[in-house]
Amino acid sequence: MSHRLKKALVVVAGLLLLSACTGPKAEEKPAAGAGPATTAQPSGPLRVAVISHGTAGDAFWNVVKNGAEEAGRQLDVQVEYNSDGDPGNQAKLIDNAVAQRVGGLVVSMANPEALKTSIENAVRAGIPVITINSGEDKSAGYGALTHVGQNETIAGEEAGKKFRELGKKKLLCVVHEAGNVGQAQRCDGAKTGFAGDVQTLQVDISNPTDAESRIRGAVQTDPALDAVLTLNSQVAARAVSAIKAVGSKAQVGTFDLNTDVVGAIKAGDVVFAVDQQQYEQGYLPVQFLKLYRDNANVVGGGKPVLTGPDLVDKSTVDTVGQYVQRGTR
Fold first, then answer.
1. Which CB contacts under 8 angstroms, 24+ apart, belong to 13-19?
2. At what angle do helices 233-246 and 259-267 cross, to 10 degrees?
């Protein structure tokens, strides 16, 4: 064997030995802006805390809860639902979930500023957060993966347009939760869509008798009011009673569905309901958090995932009503 051939064989052997010792090339870190950072997640069932601003017994939030729990059953995810209408107490619920090291958080943000620190602390702790229902414009800024809900301004515009198409001239928009940014956006949207005279009335959902009294006083004082938009299915029933009590000819449209609203649409007491399909607001975030943990998927491409609006009236109420009855609409 020549000296040159021996030298070549030594070089090749050295390269093979180096390759065997170093193993496969390490993966490069993604460049800044390439997407959300992901960390290794623990194996086993995912534990998700759903924390809403719903009040006790609110039919709307019961449907959200049903959606979250059904997703948990289907996907083997442990879902824990809690709610508090007080923003400070809701923030404490978030803090408790972070302290317990849950695997994911789903939070509604009716009062985003009150929850800002708690949500940002969750994100810093490595807990993925998905916001729902309210606070869409603050969601990404607080570090949430995405927002699932209805764009309140667009929904309000659709409601206003519907009343305009019905020939209405003066609209009363009834706000039932002070400080809820989503409700302000609904009324602002209604003003745009209605393109006419719109007034707002503040009531308290926790005092339904007083809410009915205030609506009754408004339509009685101003007979020109021919349309009333409520932002909650329970308040809609109070508006119908108030209008009948004073013999007003105003017609009621509402946000959200329950069995009473379905019956009222069939009877002609409510002309339409803006359905944001809140079952999806419970179901989808649990699914999204499962995908994120197991496959690093982020849904929405940086934009919110919209669940509405879907207007329900006499033409569709029979189909939708059966799902309201079973608690999924």
1. none
2. 40
Please provide the DSSP assignment of 129-149 as one string. EEEESS-HHHHGGGT-SEEEE
Q: Is 105 helix (H, G, I), strand (E, B) or coil?
A: strand
Per mean pLDDT, which range of 177-191, 239-253, 266-280 is the poorest?
177-191
Looking at the chain, how many residues does it have?
329
Of the pLDDT bands very low, low, confident and very high (cuts 50, 70, 90), residue 38 is: very low
- Cα separation, 101 vs 278, in Å, equals 27
CA atoms of 135 and 180, how far apart (whole Å):
9
The model carries a pTM of: 0.78
What six digits make up the tokens of 231?
Answer: 């932002």
Those residues with Cβ within 8 angstroms of residue 91's Cβ, 6 or more apart along the chain or in another chain: 114, 115, 117, 118
What are 111-129's pLDDT values in tens digits? 999 999 999 999 999 999 9
